Amino acid sequence: MTTIAQIQFFPDQASKMAGQVDTLLVWLILLTGAVTFAIAAVMIFFLAKYRKRAAADRTPPKAENLAIEVTWSVIPFFIFLGLFGWGAKIYFNESIDPKNAMEVHVVGKQWMWKLEHLQGKREINELHVPLGQTVKLVMTSQDVIHCFFMPAFRIKEDVLPGRYTTQWFKATKAGTYSIFCAQYCGTNHALMTGQVIVMTPTDFAAWLKTGRETVSVAQRGEQLFHSLGCSGCHAAQAAVRAPLLEGIYGSQVPLADGRIVHADERYLRDCILIPNTQIVAGFDPVMPSFQGRISEDDLFAIITYLKSIGSSPPEANIPNR
Amino acid sequence: MTGWRSRKDEYEAARVRRNLMPLPVQNYAVVEKEEPPSYLQEHTLRSWLFTTDHKRIGLLYLFTIIVFFVIAAIAAAIMRLNLLTPRGDLIQAETYNKLFTTHGVLMVWFFLIPSIPSVLGNFLLPLMLGARDLAFPKLNLLSWYIFILGGAIALYALLVGGVDTGWTFYTPYSSTYSNSHVALMAAGVFINGFSSILTGLNFIVTTHKLRAPGMTWFRLRLFVWSMYATSLIFVLATPVLAMTLTLMALERIWHVGVFDPALGGDPLLFQHLFWFYSHPAVYIMILPGMGVVSELICAFAKKRVFGYTFVAFASMAIALLGFLVWGHHMFVSSQSVFTGMIFSFLSFAVAVPSAIKVFNWTATLYRGSISLDTPMLYAIGFIGLFTVGGMTGLFLATLGIDVHVHDTYFVIAHFHYIMVGGMVMAFMGGLHFWWPKISGRMYPEFLGKMTAIVTFIGFNLTFFPQFILGYLGMPRRYHAYPEQFQVYNVLSTAGASILGLGYLLPLCYLIWSCRYGKRAGNNPWGAKGFEWETTSPPPVHNFEQPPVQTEEVYNYPPPGHEAVAD
Fold first, then answer.
1. What are the tens digits of pLDDT across the range B451-461?
2. B260 contacts in A (CB within 8 Å)?
């Protein structure tokens, strides 16, 4: 049985961002509450004072009053402008790619969350993170649209098939918090839940070492890079001329159609799955598509590997003519 | 006599303008004549199914949407019962998913969208304009048949197994993964859309062409303004829904890659297209309610609305701005930050005209002569609940808050405050207000007032706890939930049973009143407007003598000079 003490009015607050969102919420409640009560009070006052049988001054007032109309249009507009700015600031801050973040890969599928730490540790429906460390989730879906929602951090982002989306948080309070799938995804949508477990950094380091020995995601990606035959072309001494991939991540890539694109996770992913849409300038469209031949986990691993080999300058990609 | 002559001449001029056949002279000459038969005179089934009388078609819609409302409400009741326990013991997840889809699809397309426009709009628009019927009476009947066809297909889809996608049909779940009758349900909604389009077209043409002599645009009733704005949305937005559902069905049936990335499509494209229709459609589900409330406030405060032009243009502003805010359904869908900001800003902008309306309604009460009959209680309830719904809409327009409450019960509570607290309260208020005109009988006033109060209490108990649930993080469309959410769910279910009573009572006493209710005079409320000048119920062609608008709209006499109500 639930007792009064157990009744929650506010969700757990486990990050600085959560505090900022709550502050904005409280101000919104105070502001809108005050206005709502003011309207109600005025209305009840009028209803009582001007009820049919009551004696009151009923000299008809002006039926139109431009000054009043403009006043009660412009004042709300400026209040709204302020609210817009405040909310947008939080949204903008949430969208900035964090520095020095610990990356975790998330794959959503009907109806579970598969997570993988860069060290190679895998989890299902649980996310262990260290306290005070910024964690960036790079997410994709194997089937339909899901949404990775962590109420304690006040964030969520849709998880889509065919592309990467990201979100980040920095836990400030140790504990166990809910993960929900917030985007309806089929029969067991309500069971697609999990837990974020925020641990002290030492506990986290110990946790990472538990379980069987694993290779890191980048190492696994390197193995895949060779076993899937990527290195047969994307190597300096290869017979087929293909762009060299050292330092590709984060660089500006000139394309054959004249565009210059920023090589982020989404670009690398598209190059592997639908290569003919983004041919690098000066190269032939000979890359085969890996659509349907590679799992989301392995794709992540290869991209992680590509991100890890940032030594050679990207100029190596410009062919000598 | 001169007054009567000029009125006759004015009518003659209007007759020529409207290209009507000359009327026989005796229509003018015989002033004292027995009353013409009311539109309800004929009782055969044929007289209903082949009618082109807008009043009868309005009633056909009323009966039909009540059927859909009852089915959708039963679905909601089962869901609320299921949510009494955290594990959702009553029904299985799959059944639950089909129930909320049924609830959403039927409530949105087969109850809310046609509620005020197709029932009250059909009945009242020609009466308010002083016309004999809508511009295209046969088209009007056709749109009811199309509605029936769409509804029949939707019901058939339910009977053969139902649909589990939610009313939003998000891809690729709907187009590739769902194992339910998605295409069939989409066909029902697709066909239903043509009914909306034809009704909208009919209303627009009627408003332009069939206004009584002397009825300039700024002498239009505010209900007519809101119907006009709603009709614009019907005509402009509904085709986009038709295209979207067609594309979804193409992908589902023939695997044409449009939305599923596995087929080379883009799942977000569906959301853009869907909300490009469905956000304006949200305004279809509130603008008519605002129109009704404007009428109720004026009639029961016995006063012209404060700031007529602002209230009228606010309807148009909402209709137009409503087309520019669809992206606020996609703040966490991975659309760009910049896009999010633009849609957030525009969503705040659309709140301004809504605020203007609330302020003007309140100001109308000032120095009025207010009676608190049932329709007025509903109108006041509307303003209260719509205000809460609107204010919480600001929370959702605020990006930082929306990221947290998106797709939670906060959203559910918000839009039910607008659609049920707003639109359904207005519909009930309007139904009570015009019931004497529709049926010729009065409903029992005491029961009416009690019901309005019960509905208000039940509604708040049902939906207010859901705001808290949403902020605590309970996602929508969950058939089971963690235990900490139970208290609020139990409160909500308790409220729903009270709310159910509030809807059941009018169904009983309105039917009762058709036979046993006190006879209503032509104008039981002492209200202004053409519909109150004709008999209750009105004759087949609405007016014995075509009315002429000779004064400003809502021209209530100053207090102390009221004409005696008949």
1. 999 999 999 99
2. 161
